[in-house]
Model the fold of this input.
Amino acid sequence: MQAKHPGKSISADVVEPSSELIQNFKALVAKTPNLENITFNWHTMTSSEYENQVKDKKEAKRFDFIHMIQMLYYVEDYSATIKFFHSLLKQKGKLLIIHESANSGWEILWKTYKEALCSNTISAYQSAGDIKVHLENLGLKYEEHDIPNTLDITECFIEGNETGQLLLDFMTDKPYFYEKTPPDLRAGILDLMRNKCSTERDGRIIFNGNLTALLIHP
Done:
């Protein structure tokens, strides 16, 4: 953006509920050169809290570009969240949503075991295919772009492997997944991950982590 508009001032608003991630972002900004024309506004809050703040002020800031990268599964109402942030675009602004693809390993895993997995930070899993339905119901025009992505999960199937256990915690959103999940449930999830969500290449188990980018027009 700076290359296309040299010398122009840019204002970037960051909405993130984790103070730790905000601090990491600030540290990255501090050591990145050539950002002198960019002003960062930090909002340590959830997207719904930001929405309430904007509505309370009754004077919304408008943006040329808003991106929501793998964050919608943390909100309660996909359609309402998309509608709100889309309303903040300028006349020629764009909204970018990047999310797990329909038929990816993520969708197969989380929809097959939704009752077991959707009980922590993610209350209801939806893939990019579901988000497209929301966009169409809202009457929003969009472009769709595939982002091929894979994840080597071989270590998840090596009993006692620390890396594999941490990866399972991340993929299931379950701390201490291996130790705390009932054996039958754990075996079912691992079988699905290996045989329905992944392929084998040169003796490695490669999870289908494909993403979809949805570029939404004003």
